[in-house]
Amino acid sequence: METRVAVISIIISETDQVEKVNSLLHDYASGVIGRMGIPYREKGVSIISIVMDAPMNEINALTGALGRLEGVSAKTICAD
Predict the structure, then answer these.
(1) By the 8 A CB rule, do 12 and 41 touch?
(2) Contact (Cβ atoms closer than 8 angstroms) between residue 12 and residue 46
């Protein structure tokens, strides 16, 4: 199956969702090639960037699952 390189940008504004986000990222760990997280305490948010090399359906499934969490925003950009 063809894979794509993508970056998922995640902003968590409700800290009680962090465990759920980490659980989802663990579920899709086979496609994750890098992760950077920044707690921005002054604004009360956490910002995470996930780099993936995975089939597009897995990237979309993870982005969708993240976006359905209350207080979590997720957007994806893919390489050509």
Answers:
(1) no
(2) yes
What is the biggest distance separating any 2 CA atoms in the chain, rounded to whole angstroms? 43
pLDDT tens for the chain, 80 residues long, are 899 999 999 999 999 999 999 999 999 999 999 999 999 999 999 999 999 999 999 999 999 999 999 999 999 999 98
CB 38 within 8 A of CB 47: yes
Prediction pTM value: 0.93
40: number of CA atoms within 13 Å, CB side? 11
